[in-house]
Write a structure and sequence with these properties.
about 300 residues, 2-enoyl-CoA Hydratase, Chain A, domain 1, 11 helices, two-stranded antiparallel ribbon, 2 domains
């Protein structure tokens, strides 16, 4: 099969022609019902690929002081000295947030794993799956927070930097559709380096797909809480991550489209101190509140309660 035909085939799959997942807009326009399906696996209780000894020491990336792993864990994976928020996995974030035993993972639509037949891409995916215990960069499902039911999706930068390809875009759009169908609020945690380079233009198309899904959800009166974590950049920040009704962020998270070094090289000017960090965005009205990790569960619970969810 020629490269042109391969791209044509991938484009047809994206549009939903001979593709189980399909484009969300096509399903919505045709009136096809969206059914929320769940896996039987308890993803939050599955064993991690590797364990760190509780009495091991871990150095803070910010203040460079070392602490026992158990001490950091008991402090919500935040440095006890300077408040630096360590990067955490999607499963760990869900464990910190949701009521125990309430998370049900979606059975996601099937998509092409390597839509452009990018060399060695499938091997890289398999390596990431073995390393992280995840099949992709996003986990989504239905859960409860203090008894308030919601649809929650979590991106993790540990899987190919949380980059958004066809699979991630389809999962985001499917989660939005399920939130609309089930009449539940939607919470998305973003942590991404942007579009996935191995999927080329197919990856960039996910920006439009996810944004369209969010717009339809908004038109139906759905509540969407967007929670930005370190880092949220590229195509993710330029699409669904910045479309929340309520915008939250973790302290000192890098949030923007292009990185500060690229911007400085382009405009040949020095950027303001703290540019593209959560605090800068809060000061300039791009986000509504900075939430420390120890407050995350309580803040989400309060927001859901205030909105009658």
């Amino acid at each position: 099969m020629s490269q042109v035909n391969k791209i044509k085939k991938s484009w047809m799959e994206y549009l939903g022609i001979g593709h189980k997942g399909g484009l969300q807009a096509d399903r919505a326009d045709s009136g096809e019902a969206v059914t929320a399906e769940f896996t039987s696996e308890d993803v939050l209780e599955s064993p991690a690929p590797a364990k760190v000894e509780e009495d091991a020491y871990k150095e803070c990336d910010s203040c460079k002081k070392s602490f026992l792993t158990s001490e950091i864990k008991s402090n919500f994976y935040v440095c006890p000295n300077c408040g630096y928020h360590f990067n955490i996995s999607a499963k760990r974030r869900l464990k910190l947030l949701v009521d125990k035993g309430t998370f049900r993972q979606f059975k996601y639509p099937e998509v092409s794993e390597n839509p452009l037949d990018f060399p060695e891409y499938e091997d890289k995916l398999q390596a990431q799956r073995g390393k992280t215990g995840l099949d992709e960069a996003l986990i989504a499902g239905v859960a409860e927070v203090d008894g308030h039911e919601l649809v929650v999706a979590v991106l993790t930068s540990r899987f190919l930097m949380g980059s958004m390809g066809v699979a991630v875009g389809e999962r985001i759009a499917y989660a939005v559709e399920c939130a609309e169908k089930l009449k539940l609020p939607l919470l998305i945690f973003s942590a991404s380096g942007g579009a996935r380079m191995q999927e080329g233009i197919m990856s960039l198309m996910q920006m439009a797909k996810t944004s369209a899904a969010i717009e339809r959800f908004n038109q139906k009166g759905g509540l969407y809480i967007s929670y930005l974590t370190h880092p949220t950049t590229g195509g993710v920040s330029a699409s669904f991550a910045f479309l929340g009704d309520i915008m939250l962020a973790e302290p000192k998270a890098l949030i923007g489209f292009a990185g500060p070094r690229v911007i400085e090289q382009t405009i040949r000017q020095k950027l303001p101190e703290g540019f593209q960090r959560s605090e800068y965005l809060l000061e300039h009205g791009f986000i509504d509140r900075i939430v420390e990790r120890k407050e995350m569960r309580n803040v989400i619970s309060q927001l859901l309660k205030l909105h009658g969810m």
